[in-house]
Each structure stands twice: as structure tokens, then as C-alpha cells.
Design goal:
ten-stranded mixed sheet, six-stranded mixed sheet, 28% strand, 608 residues, alpha+beta
Length: 608
Amino acid sequence: MRVLLIHSDYLNYNVKNKTPIAEEIEDIKKEGKFDESLVVFTAVEKEDEKNPQGVVKNLIKEIKKTVEQVKAEKVILYPYAHLSSSLCAPKAAVEILKEAEVLAKEEGLDVYRVPFGWYKAFEISCKGHPLSELSRTITAEEEDEEVEEEKIPSKWIILDGDELTEIEDFNFQNKDLEQLVAYELGRGSSDEGEPPHVKLMREKELCDYELTSDVGNLKWYPKGRLVRDLLSDYVYDLVVDLGAMPIETPIFYNLANDAIREHAAKFGERQYKTDTKKDLMLRFACCFGAFRVLGDSFLTWKNLPAKVYELSTYSFRFEKKGECVGLKRLRAFTMPDMHSFCADIPQSLAEFDAQVDMCVQTGVDLDVNYEAIFRATQDFYDENKEWMYDVAKRIGKPLLLEILPERKHYWSCKIDFAAIDYLGRPIENPTVQIDVESGKRFDINYIDETETPQNPIILHCSPTGSIERVLCSLLEKTAAEDGNAPMLPAWLDPTQVRLLPIGEQHLDYANELADKIAAANIRVDIDNTNERVGKKIRNASKEWIPYILVIGDNELENGTFQVNVRETGEKVDMTADELIAEVSSQNEGKPFRRLPLPRNISERINFK
């Protein structure tokens, strides 16, 4: 069951028209006005028919908890089919809602149930405090009855190499780490306010919201598509160099499969379901496909570690509408996802080391500062603390360590890297995780040296995090007031060199020069508009072009150009060959794609 709980100042509704599945009601039920209420919008799902009593029990438990938190005077059960694409039969839904109404009254709640199956007009006022809007997925599963007070919280500490320091005693010399720690401990910046990258992604014609799609789905313009493709190529080269084998798998998975349903349950209400006869879910990562590929393969200990890689275009998570913002949090995103299947813990730790090094390198290559959170269960930490200290030493900077009292997830150890946005909030980027559950759950086996079937340990790794968040990190970095000109790394910039011919008589030469530069795998364009040179320079600067050349009579005569170098702010005299060598050094070791736009500026579309 999907529910949306709204703490409201008031709810007013009026019944309008009857549908074929409408329940019969008295006239008094055809309208209602309620003040100071917890309105529980409900969508009863197919899965709920298997154990309706269990679902109702857990629903009322959730409602009671919320009522106590927000101090609502009454509860309104409001049927709202739009919360789910996997609805149960109408008759079963009515019975479940009626049972919920009865049980709520037995629990002492002042409850009212809005009629099922009628078109209704309604007006609601949400109070707007932090708990006034809550989204939940209710299942029939029994919850852990452990008393809240007896739960042991995680331990948080700063790890610097092999030195442990209590957070209160640590001398923060790195503002980004301090902000990350504050955010993780609930003391940092809120998620309110639009980060500056949202304006930049539009201004630079990279991407924008697509209002005719679902929230959290973007449209990409040629420049943004190029940057995404280059970043994808970059990760592909990294993982293939590490021995990963690229695969491609479906984006839909059937929740009727026990293993898939159990793994998907880890994401609760974030499951992005589809409206079909089957209970299908859009993948939130490439785990399902990778697990199925290796589960259907014949593996021996000689094959391990076996690594497969997929770039998911797209992965989907049903983020709350208010949480979706720019490139930072989306419902549809591009995720590089590598899975390594290992024989045992020693092999897993060796792979973990190599993958951490790869993640750190992406920060260097992209010129983005990452802060790290190392997480492990108490048991894992006790058994492998020296190894964890060695990882911290290789990272070479203090990081936040979380020690969980027991394993709550499929992983026993993970490391998360995050950039910090302009507003002091983390942008989750690379991650490496040691998964000790999924090998057994998905029935993945390998034959060991004694010819005995074993379940592998699985490492999950995204070397950069989602491609959208990489671009988010790059744009947020440019908003920092550090005296440097905002720009993308030169190898990622859609236009790397812009030629500015002064007059029409210089156009032929500009095209000859552009041909020579493009032949060296450098993206070059020409501003052939009728603007004055000063305006052309300003326009190129607004687009963050790394290298700008003015071409006039002097340049035609001596073949030397005064190049505006954005990174340094200098004007440097260069020949064409020297310019090509300079830009090629920026591109060295990085992927290349051609300019995806007309070379001449006058021929381009203004996508803004």
C-alpha cells in the first residue's frame, strides 16, 4: 500500500460523479469538512491482497505514530489511486479500507473514511512543517519489535590514517569535511534553496526540466549531451582498464520474482513502478541485470574476481516531488555501475583497494574535491580495522568513519565520496560497497578448488556516481568565489577553441585554421556573426570557452595569434602548432568526441 500523510489545517471534499466501481453511500457522505486532521491518501496495491490483515495492522501502526508526532485531532482515510500503478481489485481495496477504519476506531482514533470510487473535488491546506508531508510504503511484513530505546546508534569519529579523533575534539582545517560531517549528523545546511547549478545548466544550454514528462526527468541539449557522453566514455575506459566486461540489461524487472522483490524492498517507496498487468519496476541500479547475467553463467574460482559493467541510461528512483532539483536529485539518471564477484573477503578487500584508487583518481581528473565517509559494521571493523586504516592512508586526508552496531543493509562495509555544493550540502558521487547478501539471494554460484558450489561476495562500484551528479559537482564548483574564472575542464568543454575573424576577408583563413585544429581532435568553432570583436570576445567568455583567438590582418601575415587563455586569464602569443600542442596536452588520456553543433555560430539554434 502506498500512502501520503498530510497534516492539514483543513480538508474539504464534495462528491461529483459515480464511477463503475463506486461503493454505495448515504447522502451525508457526499461531502465533508475537517479541520486539524491527518489526511491519509491511500492506494491499495495488488500485493496487499495476499495479507490484508497484516497491511491494515501496519497501516494503523504508522498512522498512530504520525498522529502522536504531529498532534492531529482526527484521521481522514482518503482513497487516492494515483499513488500507485499496481492497484488491487476495487472490491478488495474497499474491504481493506473498511477494515482499516474499524481498527483505527478500536485503537481510539477519531477516524473518517472518504467514499471509494467516486470522482471528488477537494481542497486541502498543508501546514508546511517538517512532518506535514510524509510518503510511506506499507507492507504486511512484521516489523522488528525491538524497543527504540534499546537500539544502539552508530558511532561517528574522524579517521586520519590510523588516528581516531572524536568529532568534538577534531580541529577542522577543511571546510568541506566540516560541512559533510555536520550534514551527516543532522547539524548542517537544510535542503531548502535552489543550488546555483540549476541556473547554470540552463544558461549554458546543457539541459533543462521537461515539463511534459514526469518530474525529475530532464531534456538534454547538444552541448549537455556531449558532456554526458564524454563522461560516460571516461568511465568506460576506467573500468575496462580495471578488467570489467561491459554488458547491457533490461530496465524493467518483475517484482513477482522473490529475489528481485526482496532486493527492491531495500528502497521502499523509492520503487518506480509501471502501470501494466505485471508488477513491474523500473530499475534503480544495474544490480538486477548484473546478478542475473552472472547467476546464469558457469563460474569457477579461476574466473574470480569477475567484473561486469553497465552504464544505465536510465536508472529510476521515485524521489519525492519536492526533492527533485536540477542535476542533484532526479527520478531518471545515468549511472555507471560495476559489479565485481569475489571468492572471499581477502579477494574483496584487494578489489576494494583498486576501486577506491579509481574513485579518488576521478576527483583528480575532474578537478573536484571529494570528502569521504567510510562505513562498516562493528564486526567488520573489528576484524579489518588495519586494512581500513591503510585505505584511509592512501586517500591521504581525514575522513568521517561510521561504525554501525550491526548490519542493517546488504553491505558490511562501504565508502562514499561526496563533493560539497555551493550551499554546503553533499553531492553523493563515487561509492564502493561490499555486498554479503546478494550472492545467496540471487543464487549466484561459483565452483571452488574442491569443486564445491559457493556464493560469491559482490562489490558494487560507481567510479563517479551518476553522470548527472558529476556535472552537478562541476557546475557547483564554478560558483565558488575563489578568484578563478568559472569553467569546465578543457577536455569536457563543448567548444575548446573559438576563432574570431574580424571581417569577412578573414573567414577563409579562419576555416583553414579550424580544419587544421579539428584534425588534431580538438573541438573548434568560428564566430562568423556581424558583431564587433569586443562583443564576440564577451560572448565567448560567457560560454566559458577555454581558448579564444582573434584573426585579423596581422595574424594572416605572421601566423602568430594572441590567445586568451581562460584558466590563467593571460593573453599568450602562440602559433597554430603551439596552440594545438597546448590543447592536446589538456586532452591527453581523455576521451574525445566531435563538435555536435554547426561550426559557424551564425547557423546555430538558440535552445534557451
